[in-house]
Backbone:
């Protein structure tokens, strides 16, 4: 009977495979590109460095605009990940694989990272990135990030990434926008990798569940109705179950150890696998390897997402930026000492100029540097012209734009013209709009007939219109103009000796209690800013008087000096004198 059943099962014709339906809630269409090849050979740090140069030589930039699909791909990845995790969480009968546990336990982190990507990589930003030609058809920095994740199986570190990007830039410079976009692109690549593993893990879990259901039916039939066992096996054969490692491993694991009664399905499985030159032992070994690989890939990707939030990307961008390296050659030596916000503002100016001329960002920075060097060679020039920032954010900007042949829009040129004479622009705009409103009122009054009552009413109405015009212009100016931060030096690690600073507080002294209050205020200021090479002073003067000096002036000034000396003695352990009385000329003459 056993041989007859086996021969019948072998002769059964397989049913044609039906196309798998798309995942639930999956709205992927032809607009969504295929998944990136996020799995590749593992490279060491040295191999990644060499690969970076080869990758740069293989990249070809597109000369025309290409579709920006990364956000659509992100939406699709989110849907697939959500669906895969839902399928995993709904399977409560079978033991979850380690990779599945990692996905479910860290799904909140994946959702958070997806929100971060949407916030930092809007569509308008992505379209400004250099694009690659076919077959990539994606931003260049995305392909760079994808390769880094693919050759590390989701694992990356600061040293490997730094050497990889530095090697790439030996062949082709990356723009500032690309460097700032790298963290977001790495997140996209890691999410892409998690999507790939999630689909594999969810599929394997469903196949294990399918195997478990057939084994459960066989065990129930063998226990309750042994004669019906052959029918159950025949039903499983007609269903054409998958010959995957997950299905076979679970089926064999459940069937082993139940004696000769369930040896028939094991024999059928071995014969099915023999048709494709496989054995159950090979598939079980392959499944165990897949479990380990999937767990490692998920854990690496989750750890990589966490590491992205811990890395100082501002320092990374400055280290990798060729523009920053050029600006640090500032003839005055001031640029490296500036605060990060100021240096970043300089770089953004270069980025904007490069968009409106035929030069790249490094060439724009080099032009500004050359102009500063030429100015520094002539000592008769204003010392401000020796600094590279003079040609980026000051009056030398027009010279730089002329040299670069910058093609600005008409609106931008109007804004620049208005910003050069802000007071005249403000008063002129108010006068123009107010005059226009008055002209409309007078025209309307003339058409309807001008009366004394209407004429009297026009004056308060004109004042209201003027106030409305001022409020309207203030609102427009606030919304259309961003504040221009003043350049500043970086004193986050303290004030160097060459920049010793004195904070002078001008004040009037009239009585000893008033002096005590001033001394207390000065002490609070010092305690809140106890920085080396920072000193405080009271710039004192006396109340108005018909006489130049009063008998009490000398006594009050001596009392203020005494209190200052007491403060210096109190904090003498923290360095030299921090407090100084500075009398005005009128108090000492």
Residues:
């Amino acid at each position: 009977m056993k041989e007859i059943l086996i021969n019948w099962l072998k002769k059964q014709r397989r049913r044609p495979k039906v196309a798998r339906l798309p995942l639930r809630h999956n709205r992927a269409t032809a607009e969504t590109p295929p998944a990136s090849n996020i799995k590749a050979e593992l490279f060491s740090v040295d191999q990644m460095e060499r690969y970076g140069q080869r990758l740069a030589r293989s990249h070809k930039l597109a000369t025309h605009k290409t579709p920006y699909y990364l956000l659509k791909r992100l939406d699709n990845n989110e849907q697939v990940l959500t669906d895969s995790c839902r399928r995993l969480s709904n399977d409560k009968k079978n033991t979850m694989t380690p990779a599945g546990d990692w996905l479910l336990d860290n799904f909140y982190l994946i959702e958070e990272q997806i929100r971060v990507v949407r916030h930092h990589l809007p569509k308008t930003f992505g379209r400004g990135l250099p694009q690659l030609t076919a077959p990539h058809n994606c931003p260049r920095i995305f392909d760079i990030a994808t390769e880094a994740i693919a050759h590390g199986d989701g694992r990356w570190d600061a040293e490997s990434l730094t050497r990889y990007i530095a090697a790439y830039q030996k062949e082709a410079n990356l723009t500032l926008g690309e460097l700032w976009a790298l963290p977001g692109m790495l997140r996209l690549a890691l999410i892409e990798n998690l999507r790939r593993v999630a689909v594999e893990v969810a599929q394997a879990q469903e196949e294990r569940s399918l195997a478990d259901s057939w084994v459960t039916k066989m065990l129930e039939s063998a226990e309750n109705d042994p004669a019906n066992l052959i029918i159950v096996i025949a039903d499983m054969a007609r269903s054409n179950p998958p010959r995957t490692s997950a299905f076979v491993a679970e089926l064999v694991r459940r069937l082993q150890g139940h004696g000769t009664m369930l040896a028939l399905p094991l024999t059928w499985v071995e014969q099915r696998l023999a048709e494709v030159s496989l054995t159950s032992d090979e598939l079980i070994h392959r499944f165990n390897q897949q479990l380990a690989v999937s767990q490692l890939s998920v854990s690496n990707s989750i750890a990589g997402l966490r590491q992205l939030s811990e890395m100082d990307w501002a320092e990374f961008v400055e280290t990798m930026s060729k523009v920053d390296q050029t600006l640090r050659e500032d003839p005055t030596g001031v640029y490296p000492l500036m605060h990060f916000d100021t240096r970043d503002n300089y770089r953004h100016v270069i980025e904007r100029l490069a968009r409106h001329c035929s030069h790249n960002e490094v060439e724009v920075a080099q032009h500004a540097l050359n102009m500063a060097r030429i100015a520094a060679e002539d000592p008769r020039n204003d010392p401000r012209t020796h600094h590279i920032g003079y040609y980026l954010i000051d009056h030398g900007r027009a010279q730089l734009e002329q040299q670069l042949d910058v093609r600005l829009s008409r609106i931008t040129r109007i804004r620049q013209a208005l910003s050069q004479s802000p007071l005249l622009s403000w008063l002129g705009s108010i006068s123009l709009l107010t005059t226009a409103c008055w002209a409309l009122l007078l025209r309307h009054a003339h058409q309807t007939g001008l009366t004394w009552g209407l004429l009297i009413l026009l004056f308060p109405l004109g004042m209201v219109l003027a106030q409305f015009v001022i409020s309207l212009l203030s609102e427009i100016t606030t919304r259309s103009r961003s504040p221009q931060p003043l350049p500043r030096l970086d004193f986050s690690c303290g004030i160097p000796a060459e920049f010793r600073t004195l904070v002078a507080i001008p004040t009037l002294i009239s009585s000893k209690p008033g002096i005590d209050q001033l001394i207390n205020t000065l002490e609070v200021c010092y305690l809140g800013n106890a920085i080396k090479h920072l000193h405080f002073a009271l710039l004192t003067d006396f109340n108005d008087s018909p006489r130049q000096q009063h008998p009490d002036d000398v006594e009050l000034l001596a009392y203020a000096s005494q209190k200052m000396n007491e403060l210096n003695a109190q904090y003498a352990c923290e360095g030299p004198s921090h407090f100084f009385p500075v009398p005005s000329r009128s108090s000492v003459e």
Observations:
- Residues 11-34, 585-589 have pLDDT under 50 and may be disordered.
- Residues 501-583 form one domain.
